[in-house]
Amino acid sequence: MTETTETQAAGAERPYHHGSLRDALLGAAEATLRTQGQEELSLRELARGIGVSHGAPRRHFRDRQALLDALAITGFERLESQVRRTLDGAGEDFPARLRATVNTFVRFATDNAALLELMFSSKHREGAEDVRAAAEPGFTLMFGLITQGQESGDVAPGDPEQVSIVLVATMQGIATLINGDMVDVSLLDELTDRATDQFLRGAGPV
Q1: How far apart are CA 130 and CA 132, in angstroms?
Q2: Which carries the bigger pLDDT value, residue 72 or residue 10?
Q3: What is the pLDDT of residue 150?
Q4: Are 96 and 87 in contact (CB under 8 A)?
Q5: CATH number for the domain harbouring residue 47
Q6: Model's pTM, two decimal places?
Q7: Banded pLDDT at 201 (limits 50, 70, 90)
Q8: CA distance 46 to 22
């Protein structure tokens, strides 16, 4: 094989610039997750789909589980970023901030149903410290929001972590109903508004 041929062969196996192969693999993996489910994810098939050698993905992911964890981490980072932007744009009024946050969370959960399922199942897997660390900032935002509500008098005093858990459970419950086709997605805004009103009444000062 001539030097030119060797160079062309190497290039055929590495059509991505340094750093972009990982992003391409994650993008392809999320698309597969969305359309075919977690069980169909394969490093070899992803490599074939984006046109790299079957061993190329292992430069970034040692195995399939590492890929799944990276997807979960990316999901938590995106969710945290969206909630943070929502809070930054919602002003200082606590009910308005709460309403916007609930809507953002549920919309993310329904737009990314398979990803959300992976995120939370990965978070509880033994040894998934990196996934749990990625999830923490989003839950910290929820904790901070509840603390703000207690300071403004909109939420009764008490353990803000427990109140945050109730809030997350409420949001995930709505998303589960929509993702399970038990409630039509067209009712999302109405449901999140009603859930917010009920949460405020239930969590408010006696």
Answers
A1: 5
A2: 72
A3: 95
A4: no
A5: 1.10.10
A6: 0.84
A7: very high
A8: 11
Q: What angle do CA 103, 106, 111 make, to 5 degrees?
A: 120
Residues 45 and 68 in one domain: no
Query: Where do we find the tokens 């977690």?
Result: 38
Structural domain count, the chain? 2
Each residue's pLDDT tens digit, 10-44: 444 455 544 588 888 889 889 999 998 888 888 88
